[in-house]
Design a protein that fits this description.
It comes from Stakelama pacifica. InterPro entries: SAM-dependent_MTases_sf. This is Methyltransferase. This protein has one domain: Rossmann fold (3-Layer(aba) Sandwich). Strands 2-1-3-4-6-5-7 form a seven-stranded mixed beta sheet, with helices on both faces. α2 packs parallel to α3. The protein has seven helices and seven strands; from the N terminus they run ααβαββαβαβββαα. The protein is of the alpha/beta class. The radius of gyration is 18 Å and the shape is globular.
């Protein structure tokens, strides 16, 4: 009898066709954890500006707006929450900001990093699955030439699910099997490039902090949304 292949290598694949959107919203707590790490080292402060060029439904924009003086948010697709629709990679380069934060489409991550480094005065922070640090081609194109200054490792799993945001450990209303709780086999890291960095990559760990960093209203209440049959708005409350 054949059994499903549940190896980590298989489960880490997002299984998104090349012409589909890479729609995996970032839990706000993960962005807050990165911001605190940067602020504690005086690498980012509240007077700075920021850009989020793959804003999705705004779940990363929310904590960025809590911290930075201003956030320029956009996406190549209209998710119905009011962000300008712009293609970050094509056309004229955007105006400079201090920081660029993003959870970019995996297959376009190198291009996002290059554009962000060209248009960020202080630094770039990219949340990417752990597999991004692998690959001989990526080493030749990126790491051998412009390695990141830091790789931050989340000690807690950052649960990202396709097309929805569900708190880790709570029942996922869209799971194929009823009662399945939100979880992931995929690990995520944060790759940071500093404008004045030396490219000597240092690995640091983000300690467990999800419960501390979560806020009321971070997660949409899909039951209310279904009952109202309307738009959830930017940050639907639970």
């Amino acid at each position: 009898m054949n059994t499903p292949n549940r190896s980590t290598a298989v489960m880490q694949r997002r299984c998104v066709a090349p012409d589909e959107l890479d729609d995996f919203p970032t839990p706000p707590w993960a962005t807050r954890a990165v911001l605190r790490w940067l602020a504690e080292r005086s690498l980012a402060h509240r007077a700075m500006t920021c850009r989020e060029p793959a804003a999705n439904r705004g779940y990363m924009v929310k904590p960025l707006a809590e911290f930075f003086a201003s956030v320029d948010a956009s996406d190549v697709h209209d998710y119905g929450v009011g962000f300008p629709v712009r293609d970050y990679l094509f056309g004229a380069a955007p105006y400079p900001v201090d920081w660029t934060f993003c959870n970019p489409p995996f297959r376009l991550a190198e291009q996002f990093i290059a554009r962000a480094r060209d248009t960020s005065r202080a630094g770039v922070a990219m949340i990417l699955r752990g597999a991004f640090e692998e690959g001989t081609g990526r080493y030749e194109r990126l790491y051998s030439r412009t390695p990141p200054d830091f790789k931050l490792v989340f000690t807690e799993r950052v649960v990202m699910l396709r097309g929805r945001l569900v708190r880790a450990g709570e029942v996922d209303p869209f799971a194929e099997k009823p009662g399945t709780k939100a979880s992931t086999a995929t690990s995520y890291n944060v790759f940071i490039w500093l404008t004045d960095g030396d490219g000597d990559t240092r690995v640091r760990w983000i300690p467990p902090c999800r419960l501390e960093m979560e806020r009321e209203g971070d997660y949409p209440d899909y039951g209310i949304m279904a009952a109202n049959k309307g738009s959830p708005g930017l940050f639907a409350t639970s």
